[in-house]
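Ticket opened by: R.M.
Priority: normal
Category: complex prediction / small molecule

The reporter submitted a protein together with phosphoenolpyruvate and asked that the result be attached to this ticket for the collaborator who will pick it up next week. Submitted input follows.
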Amino acid sequence: MIIILKPQATETDANEILDKIASLGLKPLYMPGIERTVLGALGDERKLKQLHLDSYPMVDAVKPVLSPYKLVSRELQAHDSIISIGGVKVGGGKFTVIAGPCSVEGQDQLFGVAEMIKDQGVPLLRGGAFKPRTSPYSFQGLGLEGLKLLKAAREQYQLPVVSEIIDPSDAELMHDYIDCYQVGARNMQNFRLLEAVGKQDKAVLLKRGMSATLEELLLAAEYIINAGNPNVILCERGIRTFETATRNTLDLNAVAYLKEKSHLPVFVDPSHGTGVKSLINPLSRAAVAVGADGIIVEAHLNPKEALSDGHQALTADDFSRLMADIKPFVAAAGKQL
Ligand code: PEP
Ligand code: MN
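Result attached by the on-call engineer:
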């Protein structure tokens, strides 16, 4: 339930209602805005009837939240959330590029890419230390050694780091080494994993499952926020369709839809979304145009030697072209790179 207070309502008025909500065993939410304060009550809304909230003099309106997801919904928070990844602010009027290799393979490889993207003005580094691979015989990532390299790269190049978590029991271990947990497509509905990152205080980049509906994605984000972590970024990374020309079908409907329904930042991953190197540049421009808050892109200085996803990795030249090509689109969208 959403309770909209009158503009002249004070914090004391709000607290009185919040205490009443809590006394019924519902979760109270306090959302002060510039012009007026909005309160929320999560849980069994039928219980609220006994409070007769619309008879409070400082209550302007009481409205049910209609969507099954509440915390992520624009019904509850109309303005865009701005989320910090190691001090880099994502969302709002920004368009942010996250780049780096699919997997961390070694110091020379990781530092080489980090230096290249830093030179291109990219503020955030990606790199997988734990890799969820389709085949058990494929490279599974360097694990802790990879995390140590990510932390070293962060310090050397001042680039906060995004890296994938695949096991809830790694949440604490990873906390010191990374700035943002990536929950991958294959784990979008691993509810114990969502709760584990929901208990952390660092940002979470939540990728859409390859067969997940947008409602399922939003409910997965709801799990993380409900567990206590509001710092969630949604990411469209392509879905499985009948089309086989590309690795996945990048669903740009999703971006526009998610921006409409949710206040969370929405990113696009054109690398996995297409799996085709030459399509990453045009789909990145499309992502900006449709209203995404950023992209996450794979890059490698020597893709032929990459241990995963080399076919879709951008080289230094590809990457500098990408940055130049998205610039006018970002400006046209009224955003800042
Ligand atoms: C990745 O980012 O390298 C990755 C495995 O992504 P996804 O979960 O979207 O497949
Ligand atoms: Mn990859």
